[in-house]
Amino acid sequence: MTSLTVLPSGKTYDVAAGQSLMAALQSVGEPIQSKCGGGAKCEACHVMVTEGRKTLSKIQRAENEKLDGMVGIASASRLACQAILGEEAVTVQLL
Length: 95
Ligand code: FES
Description:
By secondary structure, this protein is α+β, with helices and mostly antiparallel strands. The protein is 16% helix and 26% strand. It has 2 helices and 5 strands, in the order E-E-H-E-H-E-E.
């Protein structure tokens, strides 16, 4: 298990490590968008990871290519469908 804090709600949840950030957000009822079903193709699941970036899985090619083509990304940007939770606490800002 790990800890997931979601902004702007400010709620903190205990969620299973090893699942995608999107799956964790959906499991706790936070409003994360998805138009491609988690395939790194739609940008709808873009979030900012404000704490715990290093505990997430590394950005792989498909996510990197998608982020490269997006407007409004920052170093904290991740596609929630591609980022796998590690064992340490994470804070994400929903957009
Ligand atoms: S759900 Fe489409 S890119 Fe993540």
